[in-house]
Amino acid sequence: MSVPAHLSLVTLGVADVARSTAFYEALGWHRSGASQDEITFIQLNGVVLSLYGAQALADDALQPSPPGGFRGITLALNQATPAGVDRVVAEFVAAGATLVKAPALVEWGGYSGYVADPDGHLWEIAHNPYSPQWAAPDS
Q1: How close are the terminal C-alpha atoms of the chain, in Å?
Q2: In the chain, how many domains are there?
Q3: In 17-97, which ranges are continuous DSSP H helix?
Q4: 100 lies in a domain?
Q5: Over 80: is that where the pLDDT of 139 sits?
Q6: How far is the C-alpha of 79 from the C-alpha of 118, rounded, in Å?
Q7: Residues 49-94: pLDDT tens digits?
Q8: Distance between CA 14 and CA 54 in Å, rounded?
Q9: How far is CA 135 from each of CA 15, 45, 81, 130, rounded to the nearest angstrom?
Q10: Domain assignment present for 20
């Protein structure tokens, strides 16, 4: 027996579900009809992004309150070109994200930058010339 290699849902613990929902909607992402006041579901390409109260998420998982600072995880949006990276980083910042690391060439041959959503969740926006199958087409 083996577990299928599949990711269904990523849940971000947030301080204010409505504020976080507004941020992601400012990117042009849409909450699903299954969303409620205490949880938002956003259908991405093949996976659902969920926004849920941080303390409620910790309680559900029987974990202590979430710490501040780096959480040891990043989310990534790969783009087809470096120009696409610059555009997406700018759109995140315009929606209210904080620029953490400006896009630049990286030692492995790609182009990458980081932004943080209003709760500090890090998003890497990258162009990986070696993995075009991971990239969203630039629009």
Answers
A1: 41
A2: 2
A3: 17-26, 54-60, 82-95
A4: yes
A5: no
A6: 22
A7: 999 999 999 999 999 987 778 888 999 999 999 999 999 999 999 9
A8: 5
A9: 30, 11, 9, 10
A10: yes
pLDDT at site 24: 98
Structural domain including 47 reads 9-60
Structure tokens at 76: 């990534």
Q: Does residue 91 belong to any structural domain of this protein?
A: yes
Q: What are phi and psi of 93, to 5 degrees?
A: -65, -40
Task: Give the mean pLDDT of the chain.
Answer: 93
pTM of the model: 0.92
Residue 3 falls within a domain, yes or no?
A: no
Q: Does 90 share its domain with 125? A: yes
CATH number of domain containing 107? 3.10.180.10
